[in-house]
Design goal:
The structure holds 2 protein chains of 2 kinds. By secondary structure, chain A is mostly helical. Chain A has one domain: Up-down Bundle (Cytochrome C Oxidase, Chain A), CATH 1.20.210. Chain A is about 80% helix and about 0% strand. Chain A is built from 14 helices and no strands. Chain B is mainly alpha-helical. The chains are: A mainly alpha, B mainly alpha. The interface between A and B is large, with 36 and 40 residues.
């Protein structure tokens, strides 16, 4: 058996994931500022501001964090690192950031040239990343449950990106590319369920039981729910007559996963307060709400007026909460790991190393959790009739504070790393 | 006897449980219980690391002819864990719960990341490369 391809020790240089993590809050901040300027976007899905903020959050914040995290997670979960070749991670990040800004500018100004730029930069970023990720996933052997689901998430990402490219080309060249409303919905579905939920599912199979000492998540998630969810997305997209049934089943599968993960967390043995656990629970409750809304809409219950709230539930309640929680574990651990390796063989230096809580104090984690709750509360209050102008803006301010605080916490952790690095 | 993966994974879970008992006792400032739970954890962990370093890894290395690959990294991570366990013992003796919990979180994540690599890759691989894994499991059990 070949073992030389296995690289447990090839953790990425700290600058790779941290570079992605540090840039992400800036995009979140931009989305929050758009909300401050145009709170009406919370109710209107098709406003340029809504689309710009959604993509700043999904691509600028979400994808930056997820890609950065995959550089760290892949060698651990699968033994296969992503290629660090020739500054590839930086190039991908640059393309992703440029494409995201171009896309947001396009939505705000309706300038075709901005969409053209986005339609070049984002597919390039996607191709390069999926190329690296796909190669690593292809090499995984033996294939564990987590890696199996990650492969499906890669398919989801390609689906979401391909459908997104079609939309960007329509905005860039409306006379050449016809508009197809159902493809917009398909893009949203693939991006949210095929990519984000699938990725979280795959990663959570490993990290929830391991970090929080919970019972293992049920085997049916990897063996049945994840492939079935992807199959439903294909059916809903390619065979419109069965769309409602496929969406209903997608909602059931997503909801079942959320309940199973919540159950596992409820049975955890560690009793200490852990804000990552709280953020996971908050996120999974929001995923359950998303599944209920999706199921209701597939069952024919008219939820048009809920399009805005569902976006908030999924984007801020689920996606942002998971990421804040994961960052609280990944970042201090990564820094600690690099510091410890720098001090191996020097017991005195090792004794003086800051531990994870020194790098990201519990107090900071608690404040981040409180800011996230405040952001969500104000967002929900915005849907009380007559409140949107005031609480919508306040929610934007809270979200801005949330992202600034995250950026500050990550930056301070980075500073502590350099301060603790042995000088010799 | 079952597979190496099943047997060794059970060892990880046992260590997790003992660590959790110690952590819960420290969180509750119940020092006498924390001392005994910590002692149990440290003993179990050292026993598990010994099983790997003295029996499992050599068997893997012999079959694959690779002594500088995954097992070398695992041995290095064992040393990292031992360094943290020594720090944690100091924090416990000093009754410094903040330091213990901070170091404990670090050990937990380090240990879990290490376990993930073993359970997902190294143990299944060892089961595959070693013809008679139940014989090795018997020796591990007698360690």
């Amino acid at each position: 058996m070949r073992t030389d391809g296995l690289s447990f020790d090839r953790i990425p240089p700290l600058a790779t994931p941290l570079g992605y993590f540090l840039l992400a809050p800036l995009f979140g901040l931009l989305a929050a500022l758009i909300l401050v300027a145009q709170p009406a976007m919370l109710e209107q899905r098709w406003l340029g501001a809504s689309l710009a903020a959604t993509h700043l959050l999904a691509l600028g914040f979400g994808a930056q964090i997820m890609l950065g995290a995959l550089y760290q997670v892949m060698p651990v979960v699968t033994g296969q690192p992503l290629s660090q070749h020739a500054r590839l991670p930086r190039l991908i990040q640059l393309l992703l950031a440029t494409g995201t800004l171009a896309l947001a500018t396009g939505f705000m100004t309706a300038a075709p040239v901005a969409f053209s730029l986005a339609a070049i930069a984002l597919p390039l970023a996607l191709l390069l990343f999926v190329g690296c990720w796909g190669t690593a996933l292809w090499r995984v052997h033996p294939l564990g449950e987590s890696a199996r689901v990650l492969r499906l998430a890669a398919v989801g990402l390609i689906g979401a990106g391909g459908l997104g490219l079609h939309q960007a080309l329509y905005h860039a060249y409306p006379s050449l590319i016809g508009y197809a409303g159902e493809l917009t919905d398909a893009h949203l579905l693939w991006a949210s369920l095929g990519w984000v939920v699938m990725l979280v599912m795959g990663v959570s199979l490993q990290v929830i039981p391991m970090f929080h000492v919970t019972p293992a998540l049920p085997r049916w998630i990897a063996q049945f729910a994840a492939p079935a969810l992807l199959a439903m997305l294909f059916i809903a997209t390619l065979w419109p007559p069965s769309r409602a049934v496929a969406l209903l089943l997608s909602a059931l599968l997503t909801g079942a996963y959320a309940i199973a993960a919540l159950n596992a967390l409820a049975a955890r043995k560690r009793k200490r307060i852990d804000y990552t656990v709280r953020l996971w629970q908050l996120a999974l409750c929001h995923l359950l709400m998303t599944a209920l809304a999706l199921g209701a809409s597939a069952a024919g219950i008219q939820l048009t007026s809920l399009a805005g709230p569902v976006g908030v539930v999924f984007g801020i309640g689920f996606m942002l909460s998971v990421m804040l929680g994961m960052l609280q574990k990944i970042v201090p651990f990564l820094i600690y790991l690099h510091l410890q390796r720098a001090c191996l063989g020097d017991p005195m230096a090792m004794m003086a190393l800051p531990n994870m809580q020194d790098l990201l104090p519990t107090q900071t984690q608690r404040r981040q959790w409180q800011l996230q709750l405040l952001t969500l509360l104000l967002l929900y209050l915005s849907y009380v009739p007559g409140m949107i102008e005031l609480t919508g803006r306040l929610a934007g301010v809270a979200a801005a504070a949330n992202f600034i605080y995250l950026g500050r916490a990550l930056w301070r952790a980075r500073q502590r790393f350099y301060a603790a690095l042995p000088t010799a | 006897m079952g597979s190496i993966q099943t047997y060794m994974t059970a060892g990880h879970r046992q260590c997790d449980d003992s660590y959790t008992s110690a952590e819960n006792a420290v969180s509750a400032q119940n020092w006498s219980e924390a001392d005994s739970a910590w002692q149990q954890f440290a003993t179990e962990l050292e026993h598990h690391l010994g099983q790997e370093e003295q029996l499992l890894f050599p068997a893997f290395e012999q079959q694959t002819g690779n002594t500088q690959g995954p097992t070398a990294v695992m041995r290095m991570e064992h040393e990292q864990m031992r360094a943290l366990v020594a720090d944690l013992s100091g924090a416990l003796q000093a009754r410094d719960s903040d330091r213990f919990l901070g170091l404990g979180e670090t050990l937990m994540v380090l240990m879990q990341q290490h376990n993930m690599k073993e359970e997902q890759i190294l143990y299944p691989m060892t089961d595959q490369v070693i013809g008679n894994s139940s014989e090795l499991v018997t020796r591990l059990d007698a360690f």
